[in-house]
Amino acid sequence: MADEYRTVAREGVHEIEISKSRFICALAPVATEEEAQAFVARIRKEHPTARHHCWAYVLGADGSVQKASDDGEPGGTAGVPMLQMLVRREMRYVVAVVTRYFGGIKLGAGGLIRAYGGVVGEALDTLDTVTRRRYRLAAVTVDHQRAGKLENELRATGRAVREVTYGAGVRIEIGLPEADVDTFRAWLADATAGTAEFELGGEAYGDV
Fold first, then answer.
1. pLDDT tens-digit profile of 162-174?
2. Residue 181 CB neighbour total at 10 angstroms
3. What's 158's DSSP letter?
4. Which DSSP helix (H) or strand (E) runs through 163?
5. What was the pLDDT predicted at 208?
6. Whether residue 1 has pLDDT greater than 80
7. Rounded mean pLDDT of 193-202?
8. Can you say whether the dihedral through the CA atoms of 127, 5, 177, 201 is positive or negative?
9. pLDDT score at 3
10. How many helices (H) and strands (E) does the chain have?
11. pLDDT at 203
12. Is the distance from CB of 132 to CB of 205 less than 8 angstroms?
């Protein structure tokens, strides 16, 4: 698994005009192929009279899933340059849809490649991107007397506190970089006089 990846922070749209053709790029963060295809379908419905809805998406923190479509444009002139731009910018878990309203002037293969790749690049420049880093999920359980102070210390030292659950004890779920696990165990033992329970879980990604 990759230690970190970049994606878009939110949905957004960026538009350019080239030789009277409108190129409208819609970007969105997505977790699965189903979400990516649903976003493509939604954009199609929003622009029913447009001639082309070309798309590309990259999934997986290591970019293991990469797909693209020219949607009627000459082969390799739309979806591929869009995908290449996403990969070049090291974007993951993202889908791009470029809707084209044809302006009557043909751009040629080179012009289309520059237009489709370029509008995705400009959209990425316009929208906020975020970096997500791999964490090891863990849970700390302490008594109620120590919980408030411990939670404050966790937040003060920059630990990623994910959830706090109150029951017989207080369970605090956190995210830890893998390299910090042993150091954290020692810190926790000191901070709670050895009274805290520590449980390691799986892996997840969180905002840096």
1. 899 999 999 999 9
2. 13
3. T
4. strand 160-166
5. 58
6. no
7. 92
8. positive
9. 79
10. 5, 10
11. 81
12. yes
What one-letter code names the amino acid at 80? V
Rg for the chain, CA atoms, rounded: 23
207, pLDDT greater than 80: no
The phi, psi pair for 130, rounded to 5°, reads -130, 150
Q: What does the pLDDT read at residue 179?
A: 83
DSSP string, 43-85: HHHH-TT-SEEEEEEEESTT--EEEEE-TTSSTTSSHHHHHHH
* Residue 125 contacts residue 131 (beta carbons within 8 Å): no
Compute the half-sphere exposure of residue 90: CA atoms within 13 Å on the CB side of its CA: 8
Query: What pLDDT, on a 0 to 100 scale, did the predictor assign at position 205?
Result: 81
Amino acid of residue 5: Y
The separation between CA 157 and the C-alpha centre of its own chain, rounded to angstroms, equals 26
SS3 assignment for 124-135 = HHHCCEEEEEEE
Strand partners for 56: 68, 96
Structure tokens given for 182: 């042993």
Tokens 């420049």 map to which residue? 125
**Residue 49: Cβ within 10 Å count:** 5
